[in-house]
Amino acid sequence: MNYALFLIISGIFINNFILSQFLGICPFLGVSKKIETALGMGIAVIFVMGIASVVTYGLNLLLVIAGIEYLRTMVFILVIAALIQILEVVLKKFMPSLYSALGVYLPLITTNCAVLGVAIMNITSLAQQSVLYAFLNGVASGAGFTIAILLLAGIREKIETSDIPKPFQGFPITLITAAIMAMSFAAFASLMF
Amino acid sequence: MDILLPVVILTSLATVFAVVIVFVNKKLAVQDDPKVEEILSLLPSANCGVCGKAGCADLARSLVEGKAKIEDCPSCSAQSKAKIAKILGGDIAKFEDTLVICACCGGNACDDKYEYQGYGDCASIELIAGGRKACSNGCIGQGKCNRLCPYDAIQIIDGVAYIDNTEDSKCRQCGICITNCPKKIMKRIPAKAEIYIACSSCYKGKDVRSMCKKGCIACGLCAKICPQSAITMKGNLPIIDYDKCNACGDCLAKCPTKVIRWLKHD
Fold first, then answer.
1. Nearest to B99 by CA among B184, B193, B22, B16
2. B165 and B83 within one domain
3. ipTM beyond cut 0.90
């Protein structure tokens, strides 16, 4: 139980995917213009990370039995891509409201390194003990991603209306903002259990 | 032989996923409303966005859901509108059609204030002293409209934009040129119009003469002789009331600068 709590805190704050591990930077900068779209992306990532964690955990057992762990990365990419394709169709059929809410972000995640990252970390870290931990780690990491992207979207909406020197407008100021956010998140590293 | 096992496993994994995706796609395919497809094929597919929706597909969906009106699409031809109205179950309603014209014929006949060298189109030239033409209402002729037009309906002839409104006109009245022209000289007029004024200059006759050989000199002759009294002078330009105009052509014959022109033939 204690370990589950650790996984959640670690996924969201200490080992935040974007701000301390620098994975998934592309959507972090690309879809953070508005809070609304950032939230959509965040929820989609939580969703996919949770499911991908479970599936890749099971598949890894198969790879270990066959003795071909070195193909892990390739297999995981294949699985995640296929998974999202299937998920899209299933959602469209059974949950059209969620499908339209996730919209274009679901296919975007297909090639997201953060999802691959969580799948690989699940089996290299302590989360490999059980599939439940893997799932928890996936969801917590997704939540960390969502919090980071939401924070940045909020700041960017404010930046939009402020007086910024011309050379800094657009991506430069966003990158500087992200850097300061990453520095402040580094403080979480000193959290002790 | 070590390579065999991984190859087999990966291939079988890929095959399994392929089969599952095909199966899921087949089994769980969501049938879109066939009306949407049908309406989409009748819309111009230019995705110009004038209707306020995210493209033609979105408009088609909104039409079926009753969230939009077909009048919102100015680019759609009258026949297509009638067909769409039929699909939607409504009557073949009458839609007010419009035409888009370029209300300037100056071009090379209009003097330049300066010579522009550099990047950009009409919009960037407009920023420098209100454009390079002496007439502040004159077509700059750098072809911003020409480049933006999704239907390739605008030509630049002798330094002035021209929209061919004859039978085989490519113009679908989407109005992208109207919103993007820095001089605001692209204008929408009723489709029943036969003549138009190819000038937007609000200057007095003498001033027009000094800078443009083709512009309207505001003599008011057309307003005086029009048998239908469809023309009135306002702000040094004639205004045509298209409800009254019967296309007799008297004004065209009398106009000293030939700035009143036939719309649908030369």
1. B193
2. no
3. no
Q: Do residue B21 and residue A68 have CB atoms under 8 angstroms apart? A: no
Binary contact (B13, A78; C-beta < 8 A): yes
Q: What is the pLDDT of residues B61-105, one digit of tens each?
A: 888 877 777 777 878 887 888 788 777 766 444 455 778 888 998
Q: How many beta carbons lie within 10 A of that of residue A162, not counting itself?
A: 7
Instruction: Return the CATH number at B76.
Output: 1.10.15.40
Q: Which residues of B touch A68 (CB under 8 A)?
A: 5-6, 9
B133 and B223 housed in the same domain: yes
Q: Closest residue of B to A64, CA-based? A: B6
Do B80 and B102 fall into the same domain?
Answer: no
The structure's pTM equals 0.53
pLDDT digits (tens, 9 = 90+) for A157-192: 999 888 889 899 888 999 999 999 999 998 888 876
Residues B171 and B49 in one domain: no
Are A79 and B28 a contacting pair at CB < 8 A?
Answer: no
Tell me how many residue pairs between chain A and chain B have CB atoms under 8 A apart.
40
Q: Where are the alpha helices (DSSP H) in A67-186?
A: 72-94, 96-102, 105-108, 113-124, 131-160, 171-186
Residue B161's CATH number: 3.30.70.20
